[in-house]
């Protein structure tokens, strides 16, 4: 929806609008405006003749703001004291610098970035009308055409809704460029209400106003996404979001804004819409000088065709980047790209050039992500990602596929378990269900666009990336994100260290000749400069550093006495190095402490050591080293750190501790930390990962995740009395004296701990190799616990929710299975479901049997005891004694 400037002007001035000469309706952009017969009575020019007195207004005439309309605007501004000027194309740099406001219905003009840098507001024509109606200059932000203020053409009023919701909606609308009206008027575009029974809703219907009556949910969804979505599902009296079923298909409305902007590398020259017959239609290329970069890698015939079209439009083609207004290149690298970007020239790719040819209308290359050159290197963190798409169609799907590739990830047509992300337009599809069951990241396209615009992987935990409005296909709003010039400059053409625009020429690649003058030329030039300025030459004697005390130079003396031929920039560079060295000396104590921590077993501890840690290097706050003795003090600290490290004994065991009562309970964290440091001083490293442990301490045989997982690695198992006694006697004792013996538990679980350890050594974590085990979602103990047990024993464990088909193992897996023991062959060709006899779990059993039959595998629905008994005894067991049947539902013993 777009504001009708003529309609807004009439209403702002307080009189009824005139009729359009062509369609006998409200006047609008593109049709002639008919001045009303009755002049405004609320405000005459002589009442506020100086309203725009200090305003120099540039009016940019485009297709959205025709010349006739621009002339009428200029007349109004001039009538109230302003200085208007009309530009058929973008204002020049000088024109932009002289004006105070730019009036345009779009940001797609060349000097927009220059205006933003100069803090010159760009406003829509409604700013003029609102200023006249209020008799003061209106806030430019509420009339900005910037699409990032996605509610910029919304004027909202509220009906009978709670005050808290009303304040939130008003604040959100105003923050995103919209306006609030306390009363119902013809200017209002949206009335927020819950029913059609309010006074404002009745007034809207009675007077047939154009305002849409929407639920507050629309504003809520828009603000959550940061995009303006379609209002139709939220419009009263019969909003779709309240009557549609969750499983009803969500259809998109199409995304016409992506036409010509869905790929960075178009394959063919488009149908050209540039007038070559000499008519009055102005070409977008008129008067421009364009450079086609060599990195486009296009054939000579296509290159000739492009140049022909450009020249027919009134432009010239050049090979000099300094002469060009627009530069067309493929990648964000190279001398041409960096030079043009640093000189604030328009840089776009071939897709952008083709779009200009097709529509003969200027657009900023930064306003479409794939209209700007791409990078050869991926976004940090995107390399290796495998991303699939769901529910996006047409241009939106093509656009996202190309954007994924441009970001450095791999876009897959189908969704597999090896995928890392699923980008979906709404949350209801088979792919979404599969991705959630497989633990993949499910996000909307905003995550991808924000990551690409900020050139940094955004956290998927951000709420706006996981939000899907109930009846909206987000493919309709794809492609609205713009690139940020500050981010591009920081990552691709930073001018840091370049004192002026002229030094950009120093950034040439190997294929360009060097622009640096030779050393002799530099010396002669500096000598001539010295003679002109009267600076005495050096007498040829070299001063020793000790002959003069080092002082901080005053602001008026940028060049030292003994450096007549040095330029101020070189002096500044040397001072920067000296400052960096001094700063490095300040950091020396922290560096020494870090080096000590880095060499510690286990690496640098996250967050650093506590002040109470016994082995922490302590600094004396009362005694600070002097500048002269700083280097000596640093050496002493490093030596002290080395001596402290040598004083600690080598690690003789990695101990995993589970069920240690002295550390259990709230308030024992400090004791646990102290005990672990004490054990480390005895040569015992306490670990949490079962893969790293050589010993395990437990009070008895337990069925904890730690205990069961550690058994697969065959550690030496001791009683927790070993830990207590070592701490008490302050020495490392023999673990053989504290072996864990628990005959009661061995009898209860029907296995031998000693035999299980021996079998674990022989199994080498391959006990369940080839087994495919599924688990219901809310199993007692948690899916993650059972998955870890299966994983450490070489099996494969997945979540089963009943909505997906099972997958057949690959032929390679089957060939590996054939090499396994014959005793386990039957089990490896079955599929297992860990479940309980609860009714909510039993509802999944028929589906499990069905999908197991589809892949010709025998379904086995078993209790979790089957897995635990195998993991603890380290031997395979038949599932028959553990299988669940329908007659057990509700009768299983806990």
Textual characterization of the structure:
The structure is a single chain. By secondary structure, the protein is of the alpha/beta class. Helix content is 34%, strand content 10%. The chain contains 31 helices and 24 strands. A four-stranded parallel beta sheet has the order 2-1-3-4. A four-stranded parallel beta sheet has the order 6-5-7-8. It starts with a helix and ends in a 21-residue tail after the last helix. The model is unreliable at 1-48, 276-280, 499-572, 610-634 and 810-824 (pLDDT under 50). One of its GO terms (biological process) is DNA double-strand break attachment to nuclear envelope. Residues 520-531, 544-566, 610-627 have a biased composition (Basic and acidic residues). This is BRCT domain-containing protein.
């Amino acid at each position: 929806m777009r504001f009708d400037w003529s309609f807004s002007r009439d209403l702002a001035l307080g009189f009824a609008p005139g009729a359009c000469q062509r369609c006998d309706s409200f006047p609008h952009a593109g049709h002639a405006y008919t001045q009303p017969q009755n002049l405004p009575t609320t405000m005459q020019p002589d009442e506020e003749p100086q309203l725009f007195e200090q305003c120099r207004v540039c009016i940019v005439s485009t297709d959205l703001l025709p010349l006739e309309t621009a002339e009428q605007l200029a007349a109004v501004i001039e009538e109230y004291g302003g200085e208007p000027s009309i530009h058929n194309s973008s204002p020049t740099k000088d024109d932009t610098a002289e004006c105070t406001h730019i009036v345009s219905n779009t940001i797609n003009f060349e000097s927009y970035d220059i205006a933003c840098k100069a803090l010159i507001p760009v406003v829509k024509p409604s700013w003029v009308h609102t200023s006249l109606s209020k008799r003061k200059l209106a806030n430019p932000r509420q009339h900005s055409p910037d699409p990032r203020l996605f509610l910029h053409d919304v004027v909202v009023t509220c009906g009978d809704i709670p005050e808290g919701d009303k304040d939130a909606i008003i604040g959100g609308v105003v923050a995103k460029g919209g306006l609030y009206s306390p009363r119902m008027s013809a200017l209002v575009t949206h009335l927020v209400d819950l029913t059609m029974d309010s006074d404002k809703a009745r007034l809207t219907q009675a007077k047939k106003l154009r305002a849409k009556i929407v639920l507050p949910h629309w504003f809520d969804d828009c603000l959550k996404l940061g995009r303006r979505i379609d209002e139709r599902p939220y419009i009263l009296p019969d909003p779709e979001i309240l009557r549609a079923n969750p499983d009803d298909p969500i259809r998109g409305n199409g995304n016409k804004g992506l036409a010509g902007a869905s790929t960075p590398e178009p394959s063919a020259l488009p149908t050209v819409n540039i007038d070559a017959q000499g008519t009055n239609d102005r070409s977008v290329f008129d008067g421009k000088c364009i450079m086609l970069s060599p990195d486009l890698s296009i054939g000579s015939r296509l290159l000739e065709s492009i140049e022909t079209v450009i020249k027919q439009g009134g432009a010239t083609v050049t090979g000099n980047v300094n002469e060009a207004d627009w530069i067309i290149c493929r990648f964000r690298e190279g001398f041409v790209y960096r030079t043009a970007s640093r000189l604030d020239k328009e840089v776009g790719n071939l897709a952008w050039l083709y779009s200009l040819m097709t529509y003969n209308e200027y657009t900023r290359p930064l306003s479409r992500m794939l209209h700007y050159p791409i990078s050869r290197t991926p976004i940090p963190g995107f390399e290796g990602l495998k991303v699939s798409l769901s529910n996006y169609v047409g241009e939106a799907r093509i656009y996202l596929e190309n954007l994924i590739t441009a970001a450095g990830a791999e876009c897959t047509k189908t969704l597999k378990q090896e995928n890392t992300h699923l980008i979906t337009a709404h949350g209801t599809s088979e792919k979404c269900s599969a991705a959630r069951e497989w633990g993949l990241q499910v996000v909307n396209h905003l995550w991808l666009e924000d990551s690409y615009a900020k050139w940094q992987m955004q956290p998927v935990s951000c709420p706006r990336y996981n939000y899907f409005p109930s009846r909206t296909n987000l493919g309709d709003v794809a492609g609205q994100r713009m690139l940020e010039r500050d981010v591009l400059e920081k990552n691709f053409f930073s001018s840091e260290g370049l004192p002026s625009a002229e030094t950009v020429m120093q950034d040439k690649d190997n294929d360009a000749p060097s622009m640096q003058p030779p050393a002799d030329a530099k010396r002669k030039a500096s000598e001539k400069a010295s003679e002109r300025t009267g600076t005495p030459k050096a007498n040829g004697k070299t001063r020793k550093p000790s002959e003069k005390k080092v002082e901080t130079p005053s602001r008026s003396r940028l060049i030292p006495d003994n450096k007549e031929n040095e330029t101020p920039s070189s002096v500044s560079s040397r001072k920067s190095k000296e400052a960096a060295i001094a700063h490095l000396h300040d950091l020396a104590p922290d560096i020494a402490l870090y080096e000590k921590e880095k060499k510690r077993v286990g690496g640098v501890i996250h967050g650093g050591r506590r002040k109470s840690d016994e082995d922490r290097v302590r600094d004396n706050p009362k005694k600070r080293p002097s500048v002269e003795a700083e280097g000596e003090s640093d050496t002493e600290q490093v030596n002290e750190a080395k001596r402290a490290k040598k004083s600690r004994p080598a690690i003789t065991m990695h101990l995993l501790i589970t069920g240690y009562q002295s550390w259990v309970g709230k308030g024992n964290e400090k004791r646990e930390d102290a005990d672990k440091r004490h054990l480390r001083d005895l040569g015992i490293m306490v670990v949490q990962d079962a893969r790293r442990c050589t010993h395990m301490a437990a009070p008895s045989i337990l069925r904890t995740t730690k205990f069961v997982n550690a058994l697969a690695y065959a550690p030496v198992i001791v009683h927790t009395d070993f830990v207590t006694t070592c701490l008490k006697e302050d020495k490392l004792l023999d673990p053989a004296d504290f072996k864990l013996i628990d005959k009661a538990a061995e009898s209860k679980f029907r296995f031998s701990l000693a035999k299980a350890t021996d079998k674990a050594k022989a199994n080498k974590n391959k006990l369940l190799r080839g087994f495919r085990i599924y688990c219901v979602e809310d199993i007692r103990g948690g899916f993650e616990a059972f998955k870890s047990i299966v994983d450490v024993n070489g099996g494969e464990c997945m979540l089963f929710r009943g909505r997906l088909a099972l997958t057949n193992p690959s032929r390679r897996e089957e060939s590996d299975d054939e090499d396994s023991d014959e005793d386990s062959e039957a089990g490896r060709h079955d599929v297992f479901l860990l479940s309980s006899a609860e009714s909510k779990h039993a509802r999944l059993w028929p589906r499990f049997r069905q999908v197991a039959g589809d892949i010709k595998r025998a379904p086995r629905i078993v209790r979790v005891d089957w897995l635990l008994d195998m993991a603890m005894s380290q031997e395979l067991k038949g599932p028959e004694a553990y299988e669940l049947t329908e007659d057990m539902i509700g009768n299983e013993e806990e």
